UniProtKB/TrEMBL annotation, chains A, B, C, D:
It comes from Geovibrio thiophilus. Residues 10-228 form the Glutamine amidotransferase type-2 domain. This is Amidophosphoribosyltransferase. SUPFAM superfamilies: N-terminal nucleophile aminohydrolases (Ntn hydrolases), PRTase-like. In the C-terminal section; belongs to the purine/pyrimidine phosphoribosyltransferase family.
């Protein structure tokens, strides 16, 4: 349960060739709601004009049946925005829709452009006007100013100027274009509809609307869907893919398939491996819901220690809670989690969470469990210590806020007041996720998408 | 996962003697949100006037910090209303606040008055005017018209005229009164605040705000909380308590203690007992989330068959989803649940749910799992066949809608298309819940609160 | 321009026998908007149920086309509520709709019941429950409790218990009933629709919807409109009618006909008479818009002094204006009125207003005109000094707030800083209004509807 | 009363050097509400960032006290947008706020750029991205792309590329810039605040907030207000000013001073002149309120025929009115105007309006008056026949919709069914407005701001 924001994630969906394109995108965004709850938008093309609707909050609250009906057209793209503390102005909600020389375009992306600020500075210097703080606008400006007549060529030339991690959807009047960056950091899935195609961040969206899974868009691939069918290009220099390991650890839904692996299975394996690497003598093993549940099942199976749902989550979480002035212990975490005293009392407890960011929430959980009567608390984490910021988002903690960047495991254990603390080894993690290389920059500081400089401690606008 | 409405449930909370009474009631209602999502209200007394705020939707959406701040006073009561299809007019949202001879009163109740219609008819005949279709208004009318000067006497005399199941909170300018009906059908808990007291439906509310659990209000007990302290009366003829067994099966949160038993433990025992009574040869046992999870853990532990989270719930459920005209298979259930194919595929699966109402949802779940690749599906239910309507609510299914009222187990199995179907025995159920007698009317038609007539097939306004 | 509230006024409209009853009532209320801007409601009967819609603000903002469409039925009544500072809770917005023994009823009234508090006290003592602070609820309670089976008889018996001034609309499932109190204080007009009838406060409503004027409902008359046609009763003791003179002075629209006289003509005559009684040597005569314009035209015609629109009104008045801390002179009045300096400068000015309540606004107007360069300011008022509160409303000024209750004309002149001040004589006023007796209680303290006691300084809930 | 849209008008206001800048701009926009009711926006600079708030509807509805308070800064500009049928999307509401090379800028303008489409096409071709259909965005693009480092130079160079009529406010972090086009078509007024300056469209805004009138900004003048004081430039080629005569006829409030003349006095003279040029034998002269009132007073004074307010305006006009299917005669005009039958009946009536656009409203007024009993109707118009579209706005009627473009006076008279019809002579009009040359393009087709081509029948995006 990441209460502290760490990575910036978003969800995207695009439909081509289906009369109810807006509705299918709407349902897709709904199933991808876990990737972003701050706001959402849908843009449709009726082959003549592009219209859009955006709003703040949850997909199901933003779009009424009337609004969906009004979005006529057989092409649509949509976007879920991650909740951020900062600039949550509606103008930053995607898709970003503008008129350029080539006609109307809408763009939505998941990820971030590492050199966006630099490119933006250059563009502004040359007279560009920016209306949002979204990277999408940078991409559109490059396309608009490329001076290349052919739109596809223009997009390719523009993307070549960008470094970063992105899964991008771009819609013109009559084309739906999907691109995944050469490193393939963020997922993008291609599905088949009865008369058309669909591009989405995770397979759960296909499940909900009954679309058929075709394949993942490959790292560095661009697909162009139009009335002529699907065309696939590989316009970028080939690189070793580095998908984001955190998709498996936390972001993706357990019922999704991502980077060729079922998230559920990966998490199970992570839990099993954690039990092998970081065993503990205990009566019960308790997940931090919801993200920790599947891994905890693996831990329990491997260790033979029974799993108990010793922390119950309240799913009706709202925006504002006023802590009474006669302050309530553990208020910040209690508003989301409540321990089951009868389960915890007198027990030696292993707690399994997906990660530790600032450590403050883990500390509250430990203290709350201790107060509920736990005799011992052994904190286990399904990932290595998070030492480096992800350069994927506004408002992610800077290095100094990440407890593991300046504290060793024993110091962290003391801070969170657990009896023992154990992390999953970084190499095992990759094995659990199916082998191959992943972007593990948040653990080891090795940022694959930054060819030039290591960046330093400077989180960037994204998603 | 009861998608079909069956019982009507609500949550209540009352605070006395705390400067931030409205905020504590607000937090209590938030933690009791699972008992009602249609609407909520809070009334406060500043010892002079009673003011209130009500709204439709979730507690956290209705009450802003400003609204809570404006509800000044050291006494407050609040109410969560269950989602109903029918008369969801704001005037039916409780607390019901009026001026009577004795001054301003606010009333909120969980439960229903079986003879409310009859009493109301009599009152209207004698010139009473009704503004809502809430039973609370009936209670207030009886009090207002009792002709008894002493308010407590008047309340007692009024409640004696009523048959039914209720946990009732009544607030005057300077008293907070809690009453539980003689059968004790609905729970009501007493807690201690630093300088005051709190009455709530479930102990989770005490957990959140850090109140100390004192005890449950006894069946037939009336507590009067005022500046003079707590007074306890037992003004009704003593009856054998009949708490509602469905509180343990489905309504209450697993981290609550109710009727003297931890819900978590009860559900575990139900699952274990179900495994003994209704075994099945299978590879995995899968809960229908969220209500079935704890029982499924019991089933897994007892049977040794590994539990897998083979159905993932989407928690961002909104109000309106338009099914595309190119219709989506299992749309109604898929909007809430998605099978994890990698877990289900090729497996013999035991599915554990808390109950079967109409059978249509169970059927959709079975078919969806079959499509996900399950080889066999053994449906197990932690309660006996639900044959009779609960006379506790608007819009509960009438008898003929309850599949078990007209079909035997084999017929139901065929309908839901499972390979086998097994229910928990009614007597075991009571044992799991800690022994003692419970209201099991929905299983056996024996309505304890209806002394006079059996009622027939006529669901009633409640909560 | 009465900025200070003085009388409480409302508008009512009822339609029988027209498929689009709600729409016609909506348009009627819109044309009667000047009689109340706080809130409005419409109730319809589809001959089976009564449904309603209410809201705060202006008619055109409350009712969307969708809402009007949803109010199906061929009978409707509606109500405009006057803006008050006090209890503007939505539950006080009429029509008041309840279920009584005789079935569903909706009631809306313009006026006030002088003995409402006393009757209410008695009713509450006998067990009645009140949900609003509206007099309408008192009327309904009396009807519900009359013990008389025949509804019409019951209404008559109930109204006989009430003293006061009212024009009342009452709707059952299949009857529309209009009643005017025996003194006929408030207007009520009967009109003909193609297939039905309409009852409204002023003839402007008939003009807008193209209904034919039939006649005014007589003082003490009750009309019962049903499928059987119109029945007229005179169930009350006959009294000398005392229509409210302020309807002509200020309330009614100048294009209405009221109490048998065109308001426009009456105001013209008042202005002419004022010029005769209160002449002044001046260059121009300037109306305080909008209410003073027609009378000023009369003053100008009679005196030969040219009328100039020396004060321009801003019609886009909103609810909240924050006066900057670097305070603005005359801010309170300037937000509504602006002097035309080129017209005022160097001139001897006669200002004509309809009445003076607290005197504070008149004082601001005089000072603002003086600052705009007026050489002399002669304030003329189309009515006598307002010395007594009108017992027709919440929040009207009490006696001591009425400047004329404690100051003579010369003292008022000094307060408002005018060079001269002149009022219209009370007897002339009645002549201008067409002769006959009027209620002039606000001028002479003679309250015709209070048979028993003079009341004292105790403004009452009304409208 | 122009019910048909004809010219596009807007209101602007800018404040420099006053702590409550947003509030003063808010009050200014409120007093300029007659210039635009579709939407409004306010941008403030706190010398570091520019923030803004925009909304649809009336100023007093868009901005709550909270919103105004949140707009901190001692500089602000604001804009009222005229109500249009077309693209009323919120992104077209001004001020237009962006980040350019020179930093953040906000821009608001009243008027239109005749060659905006052409310039925009060129910009888009060179890679510019447009987010709105507002001319303001074109201006900002030119500035951003000028390649000139000095912002003032850059603005001047950009404006030199534009042809059209505009009064422009531009705000940077620390400068407030006001520009009036070389022809001075739209007004712009400079006022003095205690510690700062204010620029507004009309003097009424100064009156409300108690600012001191300094002078009008001259045609072709640019003023730069900063902490260094006011600087005045005249960077454009000098032209003969051509202020818009319609400001005096209709747009401006009668209590404003504009182009050196009091609007009130100008309208009086127009009415007098109309009486001389277009006399008629009649009993009464009736204004079409509100715009026709002052001129009608002049007509009445000159002719000696008494003025009567024979048409009463409803000021509570909302957005949507559903005409009942049993259609109402003259519904469209009756929703705004109602004849006073007692005044009209049996009379020979002169009706005075400011202009005739399509003729349909005039026709409805004549028919409505005829039905109210007028014996003769002599229609008089305070301006010449409107034959040409104003190239100042979206959605103005094209030539063929202007009745006078294709019909002579006698034909128009027949269409509106008046007994006689008379217009004011074009030369007299200029005299009434104080002499000098005006833009009279809507009467004679001579468009002063179009140096190159006459344009044809192609109304343009503006304001």
């Amino acid at each position: 349960m990441i209460l502290d924001k760490f990575h910036e994630e978003c969800g995207v969906a695009g439909v081509f060739g289906c009369k109810e394109a807006a509705n299918l995108v709407y349902l897709s965004l709904y199933s991808l709601q876990h990737r972003g709850q701050e706001g959402a938008g849908i843009a449709v093309s009726d082959r003549d004009k592009i219209r859009y609707e955006k709003g703040q909050g949850l997909v199901a609250d933003i779009f009424s049946a009337d609004k969906i009906d009004a979005l006529e057209g057989d092409m649509a793209i949509g976007h879920n925005r991650y909740s951020t503390a900062g600039e949550s102005h509606i103008r930053n909600i995607q898709p970003f829709c503008v008129e350029i020389n080539a006609g109307p375009v809408a763009i939505a992306h998941n990820g971030n452009i590492v050199n966006a600020d630099e490119v933006k500075r250059q563009l502004v210097k040359n007279g560009a006007i920016f209306n949002s703080s979204s990277d999408s606008e940078v991409i559109v400006h490059l396309i608009a100013k490329s001076g290349i007549d052919n739109l596809i060529e223009s997009i390719i030339a523009s993307l070549r100027k960008l470094q970063g991690a992105y899964s991008l959807l771009l819609m013109t009047k009559d084309m739906l274009i999907g691109v995944r960056d050469p490193l393939g950091v963020r997922p993008l899935i291609l599905g088949k509809l009865v008369n058309g195609y669909i591009l989405v961040s995770e397979t759960v969206a296909l499940d909900l609307i009954g679309a058929e899974f075709i394949r993942e868009i490959e790292p560095g691939e661009m697909v162009i869907i139009s009335d002529k069918g699907i065309e696939s290009l590989h316009p970028f220099d080939k690189k070793t893919p580095k998908p984001c390991i955190f998709e498996h650890i936390y972001f993706a839904r357990p019922d999704s398939m991502i980077f060729g692996e079922n998230v559920y299975d990966v998490r199970k394996r992570m839990g099993r491996m954690l039990a092998i690497q970081q065993p503990a003598e205990a009566d019960i093993v308790v997940p931090v819901p919801d993200s920790g549940i599947i891994a905890t099942m693996g831990y329990s199976e491997q260790s033979g220690i029974p799993l108990e749902m010793g922390l119950i989550r309240n799913h009706y979480v709202g925006r504002t809670f006023i802590e009474p002035s006669q302050s309530i212990r553990h208020f910040g975490v209690k508003i989301k989690l409540n321990p089951v005293k009868s389960v915890i009392k007198g027990k030696k407890v292993i707690v399994v969470d997906d990660s530790i960011v600032r450590g403050t929430t883990s500390r509250k959980i430990v203290k709350m469990l201790r107060e509920a009567g736990a005799r011992e608390i052994h904190f286990r984490v399904c990932s290595p210590p998070t030492k480096f910021p992800c350069f994927y988002g506004i408002d992610t903690p800077t290095r100094k806020e990440l407890i593991a960047s300046s504290h060793n495991v024993e110091e962290i254990r003391k801070f969170i007041t657990a009896d023992t603390l154990g992390y999953l080894d970084i190499n095992c993690l990759e094995e659990c996720a199916g082998g191959g290389e992943f972007c593990k920059a948040c653990f080891n500081g090795d940022y694959p998408m930054m060819s030039l400089d290591g960046g330093g401690d400077n989180p960037k606008s994204g998603c």
